[in-house]
Write the structure tokens for this entry.
Amino acid sequence: MRTGGFPCRLVGCVRTFQVLDQKSMTALAQASTARTDHEVADHDYHHVRLADEHAYMPHPRSRQKPAGGTP
Ligand SMILES: [Zn+2]
């Protein structure tokens, strides 16, 4: 399983931008920026960020289920 990279979001493009230092938020941001730059430069693709997509989470937190929500 390959981890730690930002794959290009264009279908059919296999470019992946590796994060040089998994523990570094700066490296994460640089890889993300490099990926976005590639998408714009090579595909003229501008990804529309969702409101809650403000940061890449290497370790996504599991969401707590609402208490008493048993169907
Ligand atoms: Zn691409």
About this structure: Residues 8, 10, 13, 15, 38-39, 42-43 surround zinc ion (CB under 6 Å). Residues 5-43 form one domain. The radius of gyration is 16 Å. The helical segments are 25-43.
